[in-house]
């Protein structure tokens, strides 16, 4: 029996629903915890996830490196804060995001979330309350509508929610220019057809298969807009308390990046936002707290103005970028 494209897509969608919750969240050996998150939901509405890290050191399992990727990191992030992490390549920014998102537990030191050791919470609950937007986020061989809708799979059939998320992620314009719009299927899966149709050029499905073979490519920036739209869809679940944004904007032009940040900030209510960025300006000036990292450690933290007065690492990085515009 040959599966139709729709059947293939439906099957993929239902299996992806099961794995999507853990997208970007590789399961590592860690204490799975027993306390549901959020805890004490009957109390006043949460402003977001809060963090308290004390002397956190982290070495990737099996790494050849002799020095830890995070070294004695201590920091506090209050619920609802907008935090920006900056620092040179390899300084530990993404690693810190992975610890905050509980993709890894520290090699030593402690992490408290909302006042409790993070290991006490059911890890899948923490992941469900976390939206991680990073360059590694994947797209699936499904329609653009489904790729976005998967963010909140119970509402994947709600066209207006999916379209709203597409708009917030900045994806509407490029999608409207595609022949099949939201129904465009990315990287169609032709394998099941091909097995049956090999060399049967006269078969009526052969032509269809040939059309599907033409992979629909979208640019790096457009992919990131779809992934961003999926995160906005996730926010609709009402469960997100922590948004970690690890440089998703590297392929975005300046205007698209600005809009993405603006849209994320518009929906920040009830969420703690942590951004990793190499581009100063948009965010760093509005951040409640800037964390500047160097060689796996926090070398400075404070507001933009405080760190500029200090004339340390942050001011150095900022001035390098500012001088490029002044010339
Ligand atoms: N999966 C991994 N396994 C082993 N070492 C890793 C892994 N990921 C990162 N590292 C190492 O940990 C250190 C910190 O890396 P990390 O990705 O956190 O830095 P970063 O500040 O986010 O860098 P960039 O700005 O280049 O993205 C680096 O020395 C890096 O080589």
Automatic annotation (TrEMBL):
<protein>
    <recommendedName>
        <fullName>ABC transporter domain-containing protein</fullName>
    </recommendedName>
</protein>
<keyword id="KW-0067">ATP-binding</keyword>
<dbReference type="InterPro" id="IPR027417">
    <property type="entry name" value="P-loop_NTPase"/>
</dbReference>
<dbReference type="InterPro" id="IPR003593">
    <property type="entry name" value="AAA+_ATPase"/>
</dbReference>
<keyword id="KW-0547">Nucleotide-binding</keyword>
<dbReference type="Pfam" id="PF00005">
    <property type="entry name" value="ABC_tran"/>
</dbReference>
<feature type="domain" description="ABC transporter">
    <location>
        <begin position="51"/>
        <end position="320"/>
    </location>
</feature>
<dbReference type="GO" id="GO:0005524">
    <property type="term" value="F:ATP binding"/>
</dbReference>
<dbReference type="GO" id="GO:0016887">
    <property type="term" value="F:ATP hydrolysis activity"/>
</dbReference>
<dbReference type="InterPro" id="IPR039421">
    <property type="entry name" value="Type_1_exporter"/>
</dbReference>
<dbReference type="InterPro" id="IPR003439">
    <property type="entry name" value="ABC_transporter-like_ATP-bd"/>
</dbReference>
<dbReference type="GO" id="GO:0015421">
    <property type="term" value="F:ABC-type oligopeptide transporter activity"/>
</dbReference>
């Amino acid at each position: 029996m040959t599966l139709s494209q729709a059947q293939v897509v439906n099957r993929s969608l239902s299996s992806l629903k099961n794995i999507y919750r853990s997208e970007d969240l590789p399961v590592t050996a860690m204490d799975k915890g027993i306390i549901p998150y959020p805890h004490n939901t009957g109390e006043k509405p949460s402003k977001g996830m809060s963090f308290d890290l004390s002397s956190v050191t982290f070495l990737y399992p099996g790494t050849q490196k002799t020095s830890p990727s995070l070294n004695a990191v201590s920091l506090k992030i209050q619920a609802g804060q907008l935090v920006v992490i900056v620092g040179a390549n390899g300084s530990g920014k993404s690693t810190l995001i992975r610890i905050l998102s509980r993709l890894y537990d520290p090699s030593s030191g402690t992490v408290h979330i909302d006042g409790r050791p993070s290991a006490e919470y059911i890890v899948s609950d923490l992941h469900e309350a976390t939206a991680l937007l990073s360059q590694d986020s994947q797209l699936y061989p499904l329609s653009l509508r489904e790729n976005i809708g998967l963010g909140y799979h119970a509402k994947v059939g709600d066209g207006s929610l999916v379209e709203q998320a597409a708009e917030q992620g900045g994806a509407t314009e490029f999608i409207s220019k595609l022949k099949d719009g939201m129904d465009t299927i990315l990287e169609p899966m032709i394998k099941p057809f091909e097995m049956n149709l090999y060399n049967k050029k006269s078969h009526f499905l052969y032509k269809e298969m040939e059309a599907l073979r033409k992979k629909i490519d979208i640019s790096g920036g457009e992919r990131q807009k779809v992934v961003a739209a999926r995160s906005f869809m996730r926010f609709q679940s009402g469960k997100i308390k922590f948004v970690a944004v690890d440089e998703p904007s590297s392929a975005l032009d300046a205007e698209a990046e600005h809009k993405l940040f603006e849209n994320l900030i518009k929906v920040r209510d009830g969420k703690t936002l942590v951004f990793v960025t190499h581009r100063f300006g948009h965010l760093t000036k509005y951040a409640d707290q800037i964390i500047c990292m160097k060689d796996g450690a926090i070398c400075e933290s404070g507001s933009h103005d405080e760190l500029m007065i200090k004339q340390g690492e942050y001011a150095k990085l900022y001035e390098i970028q500012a001088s490029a515009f002044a010339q």
